[in-house]
Structures are given as C-alpha cells and as structure tokens.
Amino acid sequence: MSETVAPPAEAVTPAYDPRLTNADLAPLEKQTWGVYNIFAFWMSDVHSVGGYVTAGSLFALGLASWQVLLALVLGIAVVHLFCNLVAKPSQRTGVPYPVISRVAFGVLGANIPAVIRGLIAVAWYGIQTYLASAALDVVLIKLFPGLARYAVAADYGFLGLSALGWGSYLVLWVLQAAVFWRGMESIRKFIDFCGPAVYVVMFVLCGYLLARAGWGAIDLNLTTVTHTGWSAVPVMLGAVALVVSYFSAPMLNFGDFARYGRSFTAIKRGNLLGLPLNFLVFSLLVVVTAALTVPVYGELITDPVQTVARIDNTTAIVLGALTFTVATIGINIVANFVSPAFDFSNVNPRKISWRGGGMIAAVGSLVITPWNLYNNPQVIHYTLETLGACVGPLFGVLIADYYRVRRQRVVVDDLFTLSPRGSYWYRRGYNPAAIVTTLVGATAAVFPVLTAGDITGMYTAAQYSWFIGCAIGLIAYPILATRGPLRLPVPETP
C-alpha cells in the first residue's frame, strides 16, 4: 500500500531550509494539467526534426522499412512503461525531478544526478536548437537567395557552422529564452499548439509526395537490406535501444511535468495517447514520407527540412520549414530548458532561480558546438549511446529506490530539511549506496561506447548503453542500500 506524507497547504513552509528550497522547487499548491496537456507535451517531444532525423537514421542499419517501424513502436512501448513509473512519485508529491531524487541520493547528494541531467539537457538543448536553425536557414535562403553563399561553412564559417547558421541559431536561442522566461503557464500553452501544428504539416507533406508519386510508387525497401531472418533480430533490438536512448533524458525528468498533473490517472491516459498511439502514427508518417522521397526526388531523404526544401512552391516551403522550427522549439523548451532550470536551481536554490538555471543551460549550449554532435547517422548513434550511458543508472536508482526500497513512501517535508534527524540526511546529506551504484553503472555502460571500434562485441553492446546502466541501477542499488557496509535504514513513515 503506497503512502505519501503530504506537506501543509502552503507551498513553502517556515520549516523548509532555504538552502534546499525556493518557490520553484517547493511542492505545488495546485496541480492543474489534464490528459490533453500531457498528450500535447509528448506530441511536442515526438514531432520534431530531431525525432524525425533519429527515426530516419535507423534506415542506415540495413533494416527493411517494416523492421524499422517495428523497432520504433517497440522502443516507444518501453518508454511508455518507464514514464509511468517515473511520473508517480513527482505527481504524488508535487515536486520536480531533482527534489524527488533527494529520496534516493540524499538532500545534498541529489545535486549529483541534478548536475548530470542538467549537463545532458544542455547538450540536447544545443542539438535541438541547431536542428531548428537548419529549418530556418531553408526559409531564409528561399526568401533571400543571396544568403545562400553564407550557408557554406567552408567559405563563411566558424567552429564548423556557417555564418547564416550562426545567425539562425542565435535568433532561435533568443526566441526560446523569451518563451521560457514567461513561465510554465506560457510554456503549457505553447506546447498545446506545437504538437498538433507539426502533425498537420507532416500529413500535408506526405499527401503532397503521394500526389506526385502515386500510390503505386511507394516502395518500402528504402535501402539495401542486409539483415534478414533471425540475423535481423539483434539489429532491431539495437534500434529499439536507440529509440529508448533518444527519449531517455525527457523520460528521466518527466517528473518535472508529471508534478503538474491533477491526478496520476490523467498522467497515464495522457502518456497512452502521447506515446504508443501518437508515436505509431508518427512512425508511419516517417516511413511512408521517406519512402516517397525516392520516386519523387530520386534519393532517400530522411530529414524533413530537406524534403520541404525540395518543394517548388515558396509559400509551402516557408510554412513547412517554419512549422518544423516552431515544433522543434517546443520540444526544446519542454525537454531541455525546463529540466536544467530545475536541476541547476536545485544546486543552490538561494542564488539560482528556475529562470537562472534555464539561462545557464542556454549559455552552455553555445559552448559545446552541438552541430558537431548530430551531423550524420554514425555521430547521432554515438551521441545517443553516450548520453544513454549517463542517464541509465540514474533512472535505475530512482525507480529501484521508490518502488523496491522505499515501497512508495515519501515524507515530503523531510525533502526540505538539513536536520540530521531527517529521513533523507543519510551520511551528511549523501547516500553512498546511490552514488556508488551510479558510478559503477555509468562506467560499465560507457565502456562499450568508448571501445566499440577496438574490442570485438563492444559495437553491439554500445547500443544498449542505457539498458546496461539502468539494469545495474535496478539490481545493484537495492542490494547496496539494504545489505553490507553501505546499508542504510529505511525510515518509517510517521
């Protein structure tokens, strides 16, 4: 029987230590998001240039189209299951991911997963901003052909990005910051619009290609199929793992949004609509649209922006590219702006507000030159595998602690106290069992990624980096937390 000890009616009580609390991290007074808001959140997360390009990159694995489609659906089914698990503790307590992590890692130790997740969000924020800026480049060149020469990085470029690319990137960088600065209610309204908008464009784009090519031109054998029969199974499983890795970051901090849900039932219904059902339609669109680019343009195009750029009508290009830009901004804000805002604020709540945390992420995204992390299928897979290796053990520890060790019991007030008598003080504010598990899990998961080209079998293992880290977290943490020298008493709920 699960139980959560709720805080008083006020969001921030006098007993809450200011070193752990601000208005953004405290439990919510009102939880108002319904089924559609969660559904729209996932539509914004799925319907982006990054999601399309990632799905399209699976064709490079030598799989048939139906195999790619099956891998996409199986991958999102795993994401759906885990999102429901990670949503429950935050929805019940009304606190974001870094705060609920204090249960497993300790009131001070939670800064470790918060910083790791925040840095990953910085990387994704930069990647998604870059992908959106590429769509904006298409619009600008179509409207002002004279700008085309400035889109060549070899002639007019800096750090691997063209002058035009820098301009588009910085414009979108500012626009996203402006939306974020207005707060969560404005973000909610923005994502309610973004997901449906890009669906309309994708259906129109697919219809346009279908009108050009005809039904008979659809050939789902998009590439040379090198894996058939049972030999395709491990490759498909690797593709499933890549899908999970793509969603691993927003999946980990889904509690940042689940905390706003008016009920856990609403969260589950929104997840059902937004993940397996919505993603199935999205996957079909990706496969069919990519298939139609072959007869229409004579080559396989897996980037929707490049597909839109081939259309003869200027108005259609502008509307299509702008919609993809807006949609990608939507996912970027919800998945990679909100999360580090909470994560970095958690490190020092008195000095770093939610908005301040978001600005740290925005500045960091410029430093990492994200266009170099997502510029071809091989680099995409390497990036996903590396990020997955870091996120997997954090997810495993969180789930194992809440469901297996803690039995779904959380004392909310103790999340905000530095008293040694607090339930989550552990050893000077840190839980060594969680920290050791995370270090071991991340090391084991990233090893295949770094040695994929040198040691036999590591290339295949690298595809499962998230699963390796997560499995170690799920298995090792309960053992370390309940037995041996790192064993800690599980506090009883008052």
From TrEMBL:
It is found in: Membrane. It holds the Pfam family Transp_cyt_pur. The chain crosses the membrane at residues 68-87, 99-127, 158-181, 193-211, 231-254, 275-297, 317-342, 354-373, 379-400, 430-450, 462-480. It comes from Nocardia pseudobrasiliensis. One of its GO terms (molecular function) is nucleobase transmembrane transporter activity. Belongs to the purine-cytosine permease (2.A.39) family. Its main location: membrane. It is a multi-pass membrane protein. GO terms for cellular component: plasma membrane. PANTHER family: NCS1 FAMILY NUCLEOBASE:CATION SYMPORTER-1, NCS1 FAMILY PURINE/PYRIMIDINE TRANSPORTER. Keywords: Membrane, Transmembrane, Transmembrane helix. This is NCS1 family nucleobase:cation symporter-1. InterPro entries: Pur-cyt_permease (IPR001248), Uracil/uridine/allantoin_perm (IPR045225).
